[in-house]
Amino acid sequence: MFRPLDIIGPDSGRSGEGAYCANEQNKFTEYHDAVFEYMWINFYKSGDYGKEFEDILTLEKLTSLSADAGLDKDAMSDCLKSGKYALQIEEVVKQGRTAGISGTPTFFVGEQKVQGPQPFNIFKTLIDIQLKS
Amino acid sequence: MNSLQKTKLKLAGKSLLKVLVSPLYFILAVFVTLLTVGVILWSLNVELLGYILFEAPITFSEKISFFSYIYESIFTTYSSIQSVGLVVFAVLSGINTSLLVYVVRGKGFKDIPKKSGTGAMIFGVLSGGCIACGTSLLTPLLASVGATSTVLLGDIAGILIFIGSALLFYSIFRLSLIAASVLAKNKQIDK
Q1: ipTM reported for the complex, 2 dp
Q2: Is the peptide bond before A105 cis (omega within 30 degrees of 0)?
């Protein structure tokens, strides 16, 4: 299960809402990969982390990225404009705070919290433990 | 740089090498280096580590393997600058500790540069939490201004690890000079 956590920048929440909109078209993974790849290739790869604070992922950019990833552009645009998932995003932030999450990425394998991008074997061990029990 | 400073640097370098060629101090430096990397990378997930060590239904060797998995992430998960910064800091910590033990054994606790060593460790732990991304000791502070994400913390970590390494470098320099006097007393170095 994936939860988009709105923690930084004005476009964090918007792109999070986009995740729910993409899910309506059963294309969450395509959307997720397109957005992350765009930010990585254009900014983070070269160390331009300051873009975190800017409004890069505008409604137009998100719909354009979605269209390139094979999503219905008009449906995506309408969904984002409607703001129907805004409350959902707020709720995720509240749930995150309750669960002690204050950064990204954070994972839960069963009840165990894993913070940061950890190696494959750490997740494998935790999943194996879950499967055993 | 004047000639006195050059002489001091040369002397510090010589005594540092003299200490580290001793197998005991070399092994100590390597051990502390590995431990520092482990502690920094695991600092984000102390609760998880506690669960694995004390509660998880896995064998002892699996627990050891789990602890060591974190080392795999140094050059794969993080950016090259973060990785190099972390390794440099850990190596300097190892050397610093080794020298510290040598000096304490030779001269006791007096003259030890406490401020730079302690400061370096504080910056190291803070940047360690950062460099491992996500959440760290800095998180509550950064969260108050709405800033906690992998990439941003990674950036801040680079600055902190640089300050920590600079402090450690200074501490090593000071300790090496003290070690020189211990070595001279033991007639192991030409002043």
Answers
A1: 0.74
A2: yes
